[in-house]
Amino acid sequence: MNEPDHYRILGVSPEAPRGEIQAAYRRRLRETHPDRGGDEGAFHQVQAAWETLSHPGLRREYDLLRFGRRAAKRYGRAAARPSHRKVRGWTVRPDTAHTASADRGPGALVAVPWHARLQRRRTTTKPSLWTEMAGLGALFALWVVAGFAFCAAALDTGAPLPIRALAIPIALGWAIAVLTHVARARRTAPHAPPPVPKTRIALAVLFGAAAVWSAGPGSWLGWWLAVFALCGAALIWPVRRVRWAGALRRSVGAALREFNAFGPAGTRPKADRPTGRLLREVLTNLPAARLFVSLPATESVRVPHAIVCGDRLALLCAPVGREVGDADADNLAAAVERIGAELPGAHVHGWVLWPTLPEQGPTTLDGGVDDAAVATAAADIGLWLADGGGHYDLPVLQSLRLRLAAVPAQRSASRAPAVRA
Fold first, then answer.
1. What is the pLDDT of residue 84?
2. CB 150 within 8 A of CB 222
């Protein structure tokens, strides 16, 4: 987590009530005020800590990101749905204005929209928790069967007495070691995809090869021992994959079912009429697409609109930024490169939305950015996003949400319509 420890800055415990936090904030404010000889950096940290901990919603998500399961137990099951971080003013519904078919004569030409060429597929998640659990169950079953088969082969064959005497202790010792490592794996926080235990698997392969060679290729004793050792060495990896997939599903799944757009705390989606129509058209016809507004690319540049579908991310901006810090035609390429480097599993592309497409676009654009007329760009953007698949790429979505969570809260009393379309 990139945010500092707000509780340590104020000198209170994470379980402190709001009254105690407010008293500590006033005390620390007097101690760090520059007019009283305090440090200006510490003064701003105290103010940032109070802005986060004084707001119940911001404090809840801060605790969830920092303390994880311990905070979830305190806040309850509803803590898995941090609605205060999601934009509430965005809804996408199918456009029913053009559903009625007009009477056309025979031989009339009909313009087929871009979304009519899409292959409608069921929206899935990636990685899938059920797939990971099925793989774990299959590997665990093979490991158990190989262990019993090894013990049975050692007792039934005419193996030497030491092998028959040590078969059951060896199987029990290996089983205890594997289950101990599995129990330790449950204590680690699944923030990233677990790496494959290459060293452990390589040692298990060498041990299995030695067992097959010593028992003879024609004996089932060595083969079952090799399978038992190899499955036990590899079992820790699917266990961690299941925990990682479950954590992704809990943190992202609930938000995907209820909201089409995400943004920093305190903001609402904003767009002019042509851009609003484009966003609604793409989000309506791509069920797996989600919108991110004010997505930070660098410390000083943010992308006004970003649409993610599967493993593809489309960054959209106007030729000239409407607000200070917005990406434009000059720095969108750098934003695409920066976000693409931080999301190695995603395909990132940028579009500059012009009111009318110029004959010669800006010379600063490279291969990762295209010019498009905002009135007709939905077809190009929608078809490019649809090639990414009709699924939710949970690691990409989680990375984008964490980027938004790192943006300071913006509080505004404006209740104007979010998007005019």
1. 41
2. no
| Rounded Cα gap, residues 132 and 180, in angstroms | 21
Smallest CA-to-CA distance from 312 within 219, 255, 386 is with 386
Q: How far apart are CA 379 and CA 393, in angstroms?
A: 22
Instruction: Map residue 405 onto helix, strand or coil.
Output: helix
Is residue 421 in a domain?
Answer: no
The single residue listed with the structure tokens 């760090």 is 32
> 203: helix, coil or strand?
helix
Six token digits for residue 266: 């305190």
The secondary element (H helix, E strand) that includes residue 61 is: helix 56-67
pLDDT at 171: 80
Domain-located, residue 275: yes
Q: Nearest to residue 256, comparing CAs of 124, 381, 385, 131?
A: 124
Tracing tokens 């938000």 back to the chain, one arrives at 255
Write the single-letter amino acid at 254.
A
What is the CATH number for 325? 3.40.1350
- Tell me, yes or no, if the pTM score tops 0.85: no
Neighbours of 246 (CB within 10 A): 15
Q: Do the domain assignments include residue 250?
A: no
Instruction: Give per-residue pLDDT as tens, 327-337.
Output: 888 888 889 99
Query: For residues 339 and 341, what is the distance between their CA atoms, to the nearest angstrom?
Result: 5
Write down which residue in 81, 110, 145 finishes a domain: 81
Beta strands in 177-266 (DSSP E): 261-262
Residues 75-126 have pLDDT tens digits of 665 554 444 444 444 455 444 444 444 445 555 555 678 878 777 777 788 8
Q: CB 67: neighbour CB atoms within 10 A?
A: 14
Buried b / exposed e over 362-382, threshold 16 CB at 10 Å, is beebeebbebbebeebbbebb
Q: HEC profile for 311-361?
A: CEEEEEECCCCCCCCECCCCCHHHHHHHHHHHCCCCEEEEEEEECCCCCCC
DSSP state for residue 307 in the 8-state scheme: E
**Domain check: are 239 and 296 in the same one?**
no
The DSSP 8-state label assigned to residue 368 in this structure reads T
Question: What Å distances lie between residue 68 and 2, 46, 76, 190, CA to CA?
Answer: 15, 23, 12, 10
Residue 310: how many CB atoms within 10 A of its CB? 23
Assess whether 276 and 366 both reside in one domain.
yes
